[in-house]
Amino acid sequence: MKKLKWILLAFIFCGLFAAILTYYPKLVIMSGYTAKMACSCTFVAGLDEETIYNKELNFKPLKWMKFKIDREKQTATASVFGLNSKTAIYRKGLGCALVTDIKPKEAYQANFEIHHSKHDSLSNWFAARTVATSPSLKEAIAAAFEEKDPDAPTKNTRAVVVLHKGQLIGEKYASEITPNTPLLGWSMTKSLTSTLVGMMADRNYLDISTTTEIPEWANDNRKEITWKQLLQMNSGLRWKEDYADLSDAVTMLFNSDAIGKYAKSVPLASTPGTTWIYSSGTSNILASEISRFFNSQEDYIKFPYDSLFDRLGMYSMVIEADATGEFVGSSYAWATARDWAKMGQLYLQNGRWQGERILSEDWISFVQEPAKGSEQLYGGHFWVNSGGHFPNVPLDGYSMNGFHSQRIMIIPSKQLVIVRLGITYKREDFDFNDWYGQIIKAVEQDYQSSQTSASYASER
Predict the structure, then answer these.
(1) CA 193 to CA 284: how far, in whole Å?
(2) 80 forms bridges with which residues in the sheet?
(3) Cβ 268 vs Cβ 296: under 8 Å
(4) Is 50 strand, coil or helix?
(5) What does the alpha-carbon distance between residue 8 and residue 18 come to, in Å, rounded to a whole number?
(6) In whole angstroms, what is the distance from residue 195 CA to residue 208 CA?
(7) What confidence tier does 193 reach under pLDDT thresholds 50, 70, 90?
(8) Edge-to-edge strand order for the sheet containing 333-335?
(9) Domain named Beta-lactamase-related: which ranges (predicted)?
């Protein structure tokens, strides 16, 4: 019996030791994720702690995490069983940032109003463009919210907005979300970063066919990498985009102060232009490096707001910056579903807004150009459907995609923008091909019906 007892104790000890080896290094990542999300959800989105725990952090292994909000200092601190504590700090105008080596009081403080040029006509852009939602479209939209088991939801859709020919023809929100709630776009932020690079290319600040001339790369083969290769994720830089492991992506986002600096530090793994690898690192390199073209950090920070968001009336939009004051161009943009829809509408309108040119048609075409090696799935920081990945969507469809199944689908041939935001933990739990098909079918039926009615009225 004693021998069996010692064998069992040894087995338990080995199991605990293996668990520690497996999970302890990940605790810092888990703490970083929780602190960052708790901070942003509290101070940017205005969500309560119950919603954050039940929605944002309601998946393994984050169920173990606990966080504390300090509203006076505007910080969130997280840990698991008191181990590997991490803190994120909110800065007015810049959202939240993790502080690792930098202390909270030393984190870059913007402390200025980013939305300083509101136009009343743009604030009410949807007012004159909203029409009644048809029963068939209501049914198609509702399908995004339907759960097989309401007590164990898997889709967790939070918002849907559908635009047709520039009109708001349908929208719906989860109970805890309103049309005024900013929602995280995750990697849809990459498409915003591409848009900013495009605006700078349109203004001749840079030529995407040329090398980046990044100082840190001047003395090795990385100096051959072009802006276009970064945009199409053909840079050749080593990268592992795995959110279930201690990868480059999670280390950069959840255990770094200077996110762009981390991304620029990775070595070359293949010849630039030959291999396609999805990489949040390249997006943050772009977001960091465009700062070189501004006279001051404040000019850099204000650029997206003055030049893009304010001009579209996207007053809820915030791109968060890291602790050094550089945009996290891969992941951290927040906006209401309606404001996200405006970004899709800008692309649907070939870069024009209210008769004003915001973005060149050349850039609109470039982002839809399939990247070499991507199997016709990816363009210039946008996902493309030219390979027929979604059979129910026309081949000219292209989209902004993000973690937890954020989507803005742009379909020029149907004059449609379809926005879906939520927290779907497993990709297979939301069938976008089927749902897009339902939306398209409903809109086409309604359009044909309205055309028939109009024809009948004219004959009478």
Answers:
(1) 9
(2) 83
(3) no
(4) helix
(5) 15
(6) 13
(7) very high
(8) 183-184, 333-335, 318-319
(9) 159-421
CA distances from 213 to 98, 207, 236, 270, 301 (A): 28, 12, 16, 19, 22
Phi and psi at residue 7, to the nearest 5°: -65, -45
Rounded Cα–Cα distance for residues 23 and 189 (Å): 29
Q: Where do the domains of the chain lie, and which CATH numbers do they carry?
A: 2-91 (no CATH), 120-447 (3.40.710.10)
Question: Look-up: residue for tokens 């889709």?
Answer: 155
Strands (E) in 165-263, as ranges, are: 167-173, 183-184
Cα distance between residue 418 and residue 440, in whole Å = 9
Q: Which pair of structure tokens corresponds to residue 89?
A: 């700090």
Can you read off the two tokens belonging to residue 381? 């920081």
Amino acid identity, position 199: M
Residue 18: the pLDDT is: 39
Q: Shortest CA distance to 189 belongs to which of 364, 92, 328?
A: 328
The token pair that represents 349 in the structure block: 């309108």
Residue type, 164: H
pLDDT tens-digit readout, 128-170: 899 999 999 999 999 999 999 998 999 999 999 999 999 999 9
